[in-house]
Amino acid sequence: KRTVVIKRIHDNKCDKLRVTPDLIWGGEKTMATVPSSCKKTYITTVGMISPIKIAEGIETYGELEVIEFIKKASTDENMVVVDARMPNWYYKGTIPTSINLPFKYFDPKKSPDEFEDVLDSIGVTQKDGKYDLSDAKTLLLFCNATWCPQSTWAIENLMKIGYPKDKLKWYRGGMYGWTILNLTVESPE
């Protein structure tokens, strides 16, 4: 037997780069201003690697399941594709039909006003600190990629308020998985 160490290869000088949508999604996945040694590792070592399953009862989707969800959602207003990234990322390009509900807005303590907007968008009402989830929509949430925790944070906050797990779907591949397969991306106006 031999011992093998598996780790993420990362050049610390890449840490100094400021992450922006233009930097990530410009030309060949990163702009010319990104040093060659950082082009591959920079966008794949920023966050933590996500597991395949984020919670019992929540389905993880691949691209074919996302496409099927989008088809079904086109005739069912109770199915919503949610881009959980911040607006500057969303407006650079997103999965068609998605709405932008930034992950930060899913925290009722940190963003109470925005949290109310999120609840309104997903069919949840709140009165006297209690949530009425009887009209909760089926959500498919995503963010940047397998290393991006934004959609998982949003899902975790929804679970805290008792959101039905069978109405939460997660696209683990996110925008990086979507674009690497050259699937349609739209820039909302």
Write up what this structure looks like.
The N and C termini lie far apart (57 Å). The relative contact order is 0.18. Strands 1-7-6-2-3 form a five-stranded parallel β-sheet, sandwiched between helices. A two-stranded antiparallel sheet has the order 4-5. With 189 residues, the protein is of the alpha/beta class. The chain contains seven helices and seven strands.
List the helices and strands and how they pair.
Blueprint: H1 21-25, H2 39-44, E1 59-61, H3 63-73, E2 79-83, H4 87-90, E3 99-100, H5 112-121, E4 125-127, E5 130-132, E6 138-142, H6 150-160, E7 168-171, H7 174-180
Parallel strand pairs: 1-7, 2-3, 2-6, 6-7
Antiparallel strand pairs: 4-5
Summarize the structure.
With 189 residues, this protein is α/β, with parallel strands linked by helices. It contains 7 helices and 7 strands, in the order ααβαβαβαβββαβα.
Number of strands: 7
Shape: globular
The percentage helix is 25-40%
The description of the largest β-sheet is: 5 strands, parallel
Question: Radius of gyration, rounded?
Answer: 18 Å
Beta-strand proportion: 5-15%
Helix-strand topology string: HHEHEHEHEEEHEH
So how many helices?
7
Task: Tell me the span between the first and last alpha carbons.
Answer: 57 Å
* Sheet with the most strands: spatial strand order: 1-7-6-2-3
Structural class determined from secondary elements: alpha/beta
Task: Show unreliable segments.
Answer: none
Mean of residue pLDDT? 86
